[in-house]
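I would like you to sit down with the pair of lines that follows and say whether tokens and residues agree.
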Amino acid sequence: MTNSEELWKEANKLFAGGVNSPVRAAVKPFPFFVERGKGAIIYTVEGKRLIDYVLGYGPLILGHSPDSVKEKLIKQLDKGWLFGTPSELEIELARKITSHIPSAQKVRFVNSGTEATMNAIRLARGYTKRSKILKFNGNYHGSHDYVLIEAGSAATEYSIPTSDGIPVEIIKTVEVCEFNDLDCVNSKLKKEDVAGVIVEPIMGNSGVILPEKEFLKGLRELTRTYNSLLIFDEVITGFRVSIGGAQTLYQIYPDITTLGKIIGGGLPIGAIAGKADIIDNFTPSGKVFNAGTFNANPLSMAAGIATIEELEKGYPYNIANKAAKAIVEELENIIKVKHTINHISSMFQIFFGVDNIKNYSDVKKANREYYMRLHELLLREGVFIPPSQYETIFTSASHDNDIVNETLYKFKKVISELM
């Protein structure tokens, strides 16, 4: 019988570090290989059942393999999956996005969150004719050079840059502030050479970190004062914290929004959305280049439409948010050591050894080893939370009362051992 250990040995012969994305190697002594998933459950190649709170790192807000999405994908597969021409599906998905995301008038589809933020930054530079961008310590915006500066979950240490291979010339075009620090933003923008400020309105790749009351409002005011564009990276929060994203929750509307994950229903996708006069700077109507053979791929469009159709019914948010709230409330009761839990909608994360988390520097003070021990013990009991302190625990519309009760039973068992 094929098992994860045998597959891991083979993978190490074929892939750098045995994986195709680094966090997958964080499960020790080797990652488990998944055969299938349904609802809130994934099954390893050995047949082990795991309650999944990773959910593909966020996209699967309906859970694994929902029938409504699968049916639409099968229907599209019968018609074809790549044409190199426009399809009606891309119009339908763009209409849904622009109807729900308040700041979105026009959309450009790409293939990942990384592509979305990369092109959003290029667009901001082309629109403003400025060269610099400003980002925040611990905010993760994908894997391209301009955002791999102090980039949260991509980094193992606090460093500039996060990756080898980034030219010093690029580093010089990126300014960095601490999340929730408006004084720093003001001092950087005063020079009036910053094309855009890119921010996760809710940090999701350093755990979950919420904006302080006036932070997003202050960013909006400062960017207007100094004629910089405000870019919300809602790849994680878009269609998850609400159907209108974080910008609807906080009623702060950026110039450009980047989207991904949920709008593809679990298939590869990204999007840049914003004011029409800004988005129109993309080729062919403008001079900011973007192209892609797989842009607006019919399968991703179909899956995204099907997913948003379910979200429009409201029940996925009711179930997912209720599940997260119930788990967080019980964890607050049973965890007796010093800790904090940051939580919003269907996203939360546990930080041990700290009283408050408001930025990435605070996250670095948390006891990562304690968190990883929790991950290992839960995995033994059949519950899968992210194998990294710097990721987010997600719930979905498939995390019903039975799943939550089973999860809490296992949390209690594990935490009694951990404490």
Remarks:
- DSSP finds 14 helices and 14 strands in the chain.
- Residues 67-311 form a domain with the Aspartate Aminotransferase; domain 2 fold (CATH 3.40.640.10).
- Residues 83 and 210 are 41 Å apart (CA to CA).
- Confidence is low (pLDDT under 50) at residues 154-160.
